[in-house]
Each structure stands twice: as structure tokens, then as C-alpha cells.
């Protein structure tokens, strides 16, 4: 089996852990291996049959009556990252996120959270996982229309058995955090779409989950409201460092939010990497079409654009950090009128000049640096 996060062979499976024990800080938030979800008659025969596995989605449906929504998927979600799963409608991304907490039961494979076997959990343990360790924010807000904003936010704590005074105090704190102060006693029908989604986000945050799962939460919002909600997610992640798994079909949203992006097609992983890796080195024509119109200078860093420095250049010129975006480096080079040095820990790594930066903008920088993006 291949570990898609390191592109090296991996022979061990995630093992069960004592649910009462503290989480292993070295373990990924989620470790998914060889995961399949097949819908249809005798679905469990598909993952173990090489002949069926080799069929396309259309061929499999025609031959067996089954649909493989998730096909042999393996990945890790690292602690504290925003892990984005994206793809077109029907790519399997929403099915995948629901299998992580068994809202949809996988057909085969393994899922571990903090090293604990999710598929081996009984009903009580699984209920605790959904109530306390994870929380999901959906596209459709699912607010209780007869409850106020404050009581909607406190609902998860109520399910946990938290006393009324304590849960309302916690809900008040979260309401203020997501920018809804002053709206505590309003009903959902008195709120805009963006405000309703903030209530949904606050409800998820109130239970203090280890992992937030977002299933295309902003796709029904107007563009300006959607951008505001993206900014809210970025702000919350910056302040709290909470692990997030974010499902979207929108590439610009994925590039804005994701520390890493997993691109899916027909239930399988096409490419997994950082936004920069995917834009700079698309795995195939499908990914290349996705990123064709992305402003490369707003995603690619000078680490990928730099050239070696000669002896005369290594000690002079304006300094840039390796993760400086090309768009900012263009401004720095233009304002200084000379090449800039890429410096890390006091050491000059390379030089960026007009020629190298314009090559990135023009999309002819493919040989500048190797990528660590994983293709599957």
C-alpha cells in the first residue's frame, strides 16, 4: 500500500486505541487507508475484485448495477491543518467526508481518528465521536426555527447534557466570536443567509470539537457573503489552530483556505498537495484544466521562482523570505530596481529577478523546482 502523504510504501494499518487515553500528538487527526464506498447490490464484492476495480464508473454501473462513490482512497489529515477536498459534482467528496464519522458506512478500508479505529467503534463510542470530537457544518443550515440564535448555538451542548446556565454562557461566548453579538434572541427567519451560516458555524464550535468538518457550507451564499465566511474560517483557524476538513467544488475557495488540497475525480484521488504544488505542477490534464485560469503569481512562492546566486549577488540586495508570493516579489523587485535575495536563517538560497518572476506569471516556470505534490 502507498502512503499518499509521503509517496512511500507503508505496510501497517491504523490500530485501535483506548478511547479514554489522551490522543497521541504524533498521530494524524484522521488516517484513511484503502477506503471504498460502493452503492448497489452486493457492493462488498467490488473492492476485493481486481476485474471490477479496473472498470470505469460507467462500466461498473452497467456491469454490476453498483456505483463506486469512493475508490481506494488513502490519505492523512494532519493536526491543525485545513485539509480541503475538492472536485466536481459526483466526484465523491461529500460521500467521503461523511464516511469519516460513519454518517455513511464505508464498504471497506480503514479509518482512524487519533489512532483509534473508527470502524470498530460501537454505537455509544461513535455517538461520543460525533458529539464531542467532531462537528459538521452543512450547506443547508439545519437551524431549529422555533429557537433563538443563542439556543440554536447551545443545542449541541444541550445534547451533551450541559446545564442551561453553562451552555448559554458558552453559546454567548461563541456568538460573539463569530460576529453575531446583538442577535442572540432573533429567530433564524430574521437572519440573512450569511448570518444563518454563522449560527451553524457557532453551533459547531460551541461543543469544542477537535475536528471541524465542512460540507460545501458556503456554496448557497452570495459571492460577497461567501467571501466574508471564508475570511471568518481563516480568522478562526488562525486564532485557534483547529483541524478542519473542508469540502468544496470551488477552486478559488480551496486555494484560499487549504493548507493542502486533495483533488478527486470519479471517487479517486487525482492529486494531493499544497496549493502551490498543484498550481505549479498539475498531475494531469484534468488538474491542468482546473488551474488554467489561476493567477499563478498569487499562489506560487519565490522558493520556486529563484535561481542560484553568484558570488557577487549573495551578500547584497533586498531580502525576501522563501514563502513570499511572486506577486509581492514583483513589487519588491520593481521598487528596488534590482534582483532580490531569497534568504532563510541568514543564508541566501537564491535570487529572483524580473526574468524569473515573469516566467512564473507566463506559466513557463515548470523546470524551476521539483514538486512534492503526490499523484495517485
TrEMBL record:
Source organism (scientific name): Streptomyces solicavernae
Protein's UniProt name: Glycine betaine/L-proline ABC transporter ATP-binding protein
Record region (Disordered): 1-25
UniProt GO MF annotations: ATP binding
Keyword Nucleotide-binding: yes
Annotated keywords: ATP-binding, Nucleotide-binding, Transport
Domain (ABC transporter): residue spans on this chain: 55-291
Feature: compositional bias, Low complexity: 8-25
The keyword Zinc is assigned to this record: no
Matching PROSITE patterns: ABC_TRANSPORTER_1, ABC_TRANSPORTER_2
Highest taxon of the lineage: Bacteria
Family: Belongs to the ABC transporter superfamily.
